[in-house]
Amino acid sequence: MKLREIAAPDFDLAMTLNSGQVFHWEKQGHGFLGAIGETPVYVQQDGRTLNFAGLSAKAIVDYFALDHPLDEICATFPKDAAMNSAREFCRGLRIIRQPTWECLATFICSSMKQVAHIRQISAALRRRFGTAKKIVGCNVFTFPAPARLARTSESDLRACALGYRARNLLMTARQVASDVANLQSWNNLSDSDLRKRLCDLPGVGTKVANCVMLFAYERNSAFPIDVWIERVLREQYFTAESRVTAKTLAEFAATYFGAHGGYAQQYLFHYTRMSGQRMREIS
């Protein structure tokens, strides 16, 4: 299959796909295999150019947010030591525009799980309940639609290593499949109303809601706080205070990191996680 080509300045494909915002892309040769919605995709980077197959150039630009003014976004970050290091390390990392249901379901499965475990769960769900499609001679599995998961059982989902998350995913899939939760119609809600609607779904707390708002609804001020980010906030911004509540951290993040706080969070998250991994490898 002949690959198409598109300019992709100020973009790091591998870093973006491995930054903990999306979990199903697999390394294949010089590029990556994955699915965008129902379409199998192959994409590889050659300097400032993306070569791809499976979708239109417009769809590739949209998914990888190549239209985001990254320099302008990064210029809004606060100029402190932790943020400066993260910004330098994460050059070219972009916030992907993910399909809403896939993003929601994946982050329901992510609770108390590390990135490697989330990838395993995503792969198991795709292989067991998704659809196999071919591209560049390889099989790619799409993420199962809510109606497909709604017809399964909790035990079926537990077989994909979801544990207690199986029930939450099943109940949410049934709400979405029956249109009780119309995810598409929520695009027009305010941030606070959208967060509330998401948190009403089984298995969705504030952290998961903020992830879905950031990665699926493009609410770039949403600032998910997981254990990595909580540690960064406490160690870098609240060093003089021994007791800081989760509410205080959330209020601080919302005001300190500004309109593109979600981008700042993702840079801090990836930088901190990679730095921690290097330290473990050295020790």
Polypeptide structure, described:
The chain has 283 residues and is an alpha+beta fold. The chain has two domains: 4-66 and 99-215, Endonuclease III, domain 1 (Orthogonal Bundle), CATH 1.10.340; 70-91 and 223-282, Endonuclease Iii, domain 2. The chain has 14 helices and seven strands.
State the main characteristics.
single chain, alpha+beta, Endonuclease III, domain 1, Endonuclease Iii, domain 2, five-stranded antiparallel sheet, two-stranded antiparallel ribbon, 14 helices, 12% strand, disordered C terminus
Low-confidence runs: 278-283
Task: Tell me the CATH architecture of the largest domain.
Answer: Orthogonal Bundle
What is the beta-strand fraction? 5-15%
CATH class of the largest domain: Mainly Alpha
Q: What class would the helix/strand composition place it in?
A: alpha+beta
The whole-angstrom Rg is 19 Å
Number of helices: 14
